[in-house]
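#data-curation
PF: Archiving a pair of folding outputs for the training set. Convention for this channel: one message per protein, sequence first, structure tokens after, nothing in between. First:
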Amino acid sequence: MLDLIPVLDGISRTDLESIAPPMSERLRLLPAPLDIERTEFTRDLLERDVLEDDRATLIDELLLAVRRGQQIQIGHEQGEYLELLLKKEKVKQILAVLARRTVQSLRRNYHYVVVDTPTQLDDMTMTTLELSDLVLLVCTPDVPSIRATRAAMTLLGELGIRRESMAFVLNRSGRRAEISSTDIRSLFNGYEQLGELPADFRGLQPFINNGSLIAQSGANTALVRALNKFAAQVIERVPIARAA
């Protein structure tokens, strides 16, 4: 996101080629910043500062006074805190606008834009999901993941994401899994399953270590076949004409 801000008004292929290195033919990757840990740490500190007990109590008291029509008096320290909250909210709005413009500009240049979103549903993530033709939830065959996926489906629906645009993919499946893929499909009744990827960490690990793509390695393994089938299902669900 930050790398694209200088060229946001009209992202050209030249801009993208200088920012997003090629992974293979016709595929480019716009990676997360190298100092992502510092970014997350800073955000956590800010959130923790906002949620301090005395400041949370202040907001509750001010809101209660507003509802009752009472006169509000704010001290110097309280005024500084309210200013911080307003600035923080303004930054969130700006980031949401940037996210929208970024996705829209990328869509004008590529047939498909794949966004690996974080688990946190902030304004940027929600903006990206709202603009997506397909929201794909990744589920593994275990109880915590199944519960989290069902909760995500319910929450996203309540937040305005259309049920028709949501689907799921089953990852790390295998014969030894305690919960079968058939049972999982029954639990997600009404949501389309796009693909089932077998558990093969040993075969995948070398590609993770050197950053290459297993699907383009020429290997004829169960995982490669499953990935190709999965990609074909996504293309069938979102044809290029619609994605463009």
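PF: Second:
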Amino acid sequence: MSVRLYALDGCPFCETAAEALDEAGVEYETEWVEALHSDRNEVKRVSGQRGVPVLVDEERGVTMAESANIVEYVERTLA
């Protein structure tokens, strides 16, 4: 799968990003992260920070954070 969303269960910003992907019909894999920032080593490895959501589009070489940015990217590029 070339699109991956790093998300935290119950996070409204993560839900917004996931809804944008769902509405655009994008196939993606969700990587659920730990609640503690200090335990989010995988997110830090791929994005340089520990906040979520983070979208990784391997096919296009794009990694981004912030739900508003993700929604805009999905609507402009993946939809």
